[in-house]
């Protein structure tokens, strides 16, 4: 496993925890942080011991978004350095957009403030757990920026267009209870339970769902958010026939008949 300076990584089958580790800066991102985070995600995807990934922050912040110095550099050069930091020109643009293509569940464990790019990171995870100490703010318009990094597409799908515009226009900070009420987060828990709950979630789905079908389902859900129902139904039908031919489907049927827990193949296993 790689040595990191801005993040910490813990792997305990079936969970990888990636912790942003710049607590003195509320875990704000530099270009170096972003590169380390991407590498840690890639390593977790390649590791068969990892069924799901939990993303959290050290200290009292989840992430305050781009570090102020990095933001100043980005605005002074018109964002050229930030665009250059993208790993692949063929990828969809935006911070953390690649998480939507990660074939494993990515769970945000939001322990504190998630502001700007920190909110982007939480929103681009698949499921969000929030500590009662967490808070959320978009902040973009206060900096003279638009709803960046695909948030104008994603946030309305999480909370509805009216609430999304309200959060974006006002940059108001909402607490975790309000975030849960409007659907920005799925699970609310006490601070000392946050990581245990997120880890337990991964363990639960790892024990009951085939990793390959979790990957298929994630792909279908995100792809179909922008599709009409005829295209979505045909796409799902094609994926269904492929899944039926895989060993996981036969194992699931046998486990049902034998009244036991199924044993599914992990992603990346040889």
Architecture blueprint of SSEs:
Blueprint: E1 7-12, E2 15-20, H1 31-46, E3 52-57, E4 61-63, H2 68-76, H3 80-84, E5 106-110, E6 113-115, H4 117-124, E7 127-131, E8 135-137, H5 151-159, H6 161-170, E9 174-175, H7 176-182, E10 187-189, H8 194-208, H9 211-224, H10 229-244, H11 247-258
Parallel strand pairs: 2-3, 3-5, 4-6, 5-7, 6-8, 7-10
Antiparallel strand pairs: 1-2, 8-9
Number of helices: 11
- From the N-terminal CA to the C-terminal CA, the straight-line distance is 19 Å
Coarse shape:
globular
Percent of residues in helices: 40-55%
Following the backbone from N to C, one meets helices and strands in this order, namely EEHEEHHEEHEEHHEHEHHHH
With strands numbered from the N-terminus, the spatial order across the biggest sheet is 1-2-3-5-7-10
Q: Count of DSSP E strands?
A: 10
Return Rg in Å: 19 Å
- Which sheet architecture does the biggest sheet show? 6 strands, mixed
CATH superfamily of the largest domain: 2-enoyl-CoA Hydratase, Chain A, domain 1
What is the total number of structural domains?
A: 2
Strand percentage lies at 15-25%
CATH fold title of the largest domain: 2-enoyl-CoA Hydratase, Chain A, domain 1
Indicate the CATH class of the largest domain: Alpha Beta
Low-confidence regions = none
Mean pLDDT: 93
Structural class: alpha/beta
Q: Which architecture of the largest domain per CATH?
A: Alpha-Beta Complex
């Amino acid at each position: 496993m790689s040595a990191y300076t801005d993040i910490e990584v813990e792997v305990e089958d079936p969970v990888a925890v990636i912790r942003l580790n710049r607590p003195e800066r509320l875990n704000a991102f530099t270009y170096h942080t972003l590169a380390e985070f991407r590498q840690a995600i890639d390593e977790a995807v390649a590791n068969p011991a990892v069924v799901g990934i939990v993303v959290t922050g050290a200290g009292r912040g989840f992430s305050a978004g781009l570090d102020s110095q990095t933001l100043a550099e980005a605005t002074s050069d018109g964002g050229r350095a930030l665009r250059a930091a993208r790993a692949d020109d063929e990828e969809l643009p935006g911070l953390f957009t690649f998480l939507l293509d990660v074939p494993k569940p990515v769970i945000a464990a939001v322990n504190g403030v998630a502001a700007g790019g920190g909110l982007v990171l939480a929103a681009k995870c698949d499921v969000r757990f929030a500590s009662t100490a967490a808070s959320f703010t978009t902040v973009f318009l206060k900096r003279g920026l638009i709803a960046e990094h695909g948030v104008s597409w994603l946030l309305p799908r999480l909370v509805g267009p009216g609430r999304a515009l309200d959060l974006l226009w006002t940059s108001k900070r909402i607490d975790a209870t309000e975030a849960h009420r409007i659907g920005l987060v799925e699970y609310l828990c006490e601070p000392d339970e946050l990581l245990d709950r997120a880890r337990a979630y991964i363990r639960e789905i790892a024990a009951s769902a085939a990793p390959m079908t979790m990957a298929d389902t994630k792909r279908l859900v995100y792809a179909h958010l922008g599709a009409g129902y005829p295209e979505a139904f045909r796409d799902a039908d094609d994926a269904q026939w492929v899944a039926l031919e895989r060993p996981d489907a036969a194992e699931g049927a046998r486990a049902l008949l034998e009244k036991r827990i199924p044993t599914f193949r992990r992603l990346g296993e040889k």
